[in-house]
Design goal:
The strands form 3 sheets. The chain has an 8-stranded mixed beta sheet with strand order 3-2-1-4-5-6-7-8, sandwiched between helices. Strands 10-9-13-14-15 form a 5-stranded parallel beta sheet, covered by helices on one side. 39% of the residues lie in helices and 14% in strands. Helix 12 links the parallel strand 9 and strand 10.
Length: 456
């Protein structure tokens, strides 16, 4: 058999393994993206390894205990008991793996530049154990070019060639924590392969568990599409946030304005303001794109302005809280402030990049005495200084029970996350002052009595 035929056989053999569910899958990073994906693969028969550096997570996984909202412990435990899901902190399992999915964080530096240390580290660890006939897929959101400029050369240091001996693709995660309608299985999946063979193999793999796989011409197209999805949301949220700032200046209720505007049955999509943007995508991904654009002598002014508006919102919230207290001859310095909700959106246990954390930091900086309540987030650590550097001293806060005493003793209650399980009628009835940044008190009776409730 000639060399060309042998190289072609690597793809054929791998696809046969995938179609027969005999391919061993390794998911690197068992978080909000990786764990749901791992469970879906295991449910159709793939043996799956979850690789995570967090020993506590690994122990929980091996006991069948889920720490992710979108994965029920019962379904995880079933796959663990059947021997289809196992977890480890090491990479030795790659020796027996056929498919490796990279689902690691892509944060920003303190100067808001891309931090690819996790992708680089994992790529190098994979390269140490990669073998002919292996598929590597990157799912972490990043700037266009990462797969081919960062991952590919590191894998090829092994001496194996992408496209013939090993296969590489980018397929962006589209996870929306807490979304019961759109899950890993029924959310359309983009796939971009480094070569046509890479695309073919990756598409076959993802189509085993995802209802619709959409191939695109390159990893860079898939990377750009994912960045655009999140930038689209960031820009539109910035627009309504700026409307909120203007309506505050003009003495208008931005929520009433938006409700009126959204009655139009065409040409408009609802977005709502808030204390800022949070989560693993919207506050981060646009900065990846603006950074990469500078390589091409291109300034993404529109996107950067949107980022500035969204970053401004926590500062505005604190400024308005001080203004509200001032109406009652009370200073923010020394004031008892209760913050309700620190998750980045309602009804999920996720505080990543939450604007509420910045609000609390700014309140502490202004001398306020801050407590918080969040049924999903038992404790948080807040930088005590002016910046976001890891060198800052951290202040640890623990969620307070939402008792009448806590509400009554607070000079102002600031609602930063509108969790559905909270009785906002009770909050308004008991508290002295309420500053609602999410319109959580929309359906509360007598909310305007005595000017007790203020809105963004």
């Amino acid at each position: 058999m000639g060399k060309a035929a042998t190289l072609t056989d690597y793809a054929t053999t791998l696809k046969e393994k995938i179609l027969s569910r005999k391919a061993v899958v390794a998911v690197v990073g068992a978080g909000y993206v990786g764990l749901p994906l791992a469970v879906e693969k295991a449910k159709v028969g793939f043996p799956v390894w979850c690789i995570d550096r967090n020993e506590k997570r690994v122990d929980m996984l091996n006991r069948g205990e889920s720490y992710i909202l979108d994965v029920k412990s019962e379904e995880l435990r079933e796959q663990v008991q059947r021997g289809r899901i196992r977890a480890t902190t090491g990479f030795d399992v790659l020796d027996e793996s056929d498919v490796v999915i990279i689902c690691v964080p892509t944060p920003l530096t303190v100067n808001r530049e891309p931090n690819l240390q996790y992708i680089i580290c994992v790529s190098e660890r994979i390269a140490e154990r990669i073998h002919p006939g292996m598929l590597v897929c990157l799912e972490s959101t990043t700037y266009p070019g990462t797969t081919e400029e960062i991952v590919k050369p590191r894998l090829e240091k092994s001496g194996l060639k992408v496209g013939s001996e090993i296969f590489l693709a980018f397929s962006p995660e589209r996870v929306d924590p807490g979304n019961a309608r759109y899950t890993t299985r029924n959310t359309n999946k983009l796939v971009g392969g480094v070569t046509a063979t890479c695309l073919d193999v990756a598409s076959v793999f993802y189509s085993q568990t995802i209802l619709k796989v959409i191939p695109v011409s390159s990893p860079a197209v898939a990377e750009m599409a994912k960045i655009f999805e999140n930038t689209y949301r960031a820009v539109n949220i910035a627009l309504v946030n700026e409307m909120a700032l203007l309506c505050d200046r003009m003495g208008l209720d931005v929520w009433e304005v938006l409700d009126a505007a959204f009655t139009k049955p065409f040409g408009i999509q609802p977005f709502y303001p808030g204390p800022g943007v949070g989560g693993h995508c919207i506050p981060i991904d646009p900065f990846y794109l603006t950074w990469k654009a500078r390589e091409y002598d291109f300034n993404t002014k529109f996107i950067e302005v949107a980022g500035e508006v969204n970053l401004r919102m926590p500062y505005f919230v604190v400024e308005k809280a001080a203004r509200i207290l001032g109406q009652y001859r009370k200073s923010l310095r020394g004031a008892e402030v209760l913050v309700i909700g620190v998750a980045y959106k309602k009804d999920i246990p996720d505080a990543r990049e939450s604007p509420a954390l910045k609000v609390i930091q700014l309140l502490l900086r202004e001398g306020a005495v801050v407590k918080y309540h969040d049924p999903y987030i038992p404790e948080v650590s807040i930088p005590a200084g002016y910046g976001n550097s890891s060198r800052c001293e951290m202040v640890r806060l623990v969620s307070e029970p939402l008792t009448d005493s806590v509400l009554q003793n607070s000079d102002i209650v600031v609602i930063t996350t509108d969790h559905s399980c909270i009785d906002y009628q009770r909050v308004v009835d008991v508290a002295r002052l309420v500053f609602d940044t999410r319109n959580a008190t929309r359906n509360v009776n007598n909310k305007d009595k005595d000017g007790k409730v203020w809105k963004l």
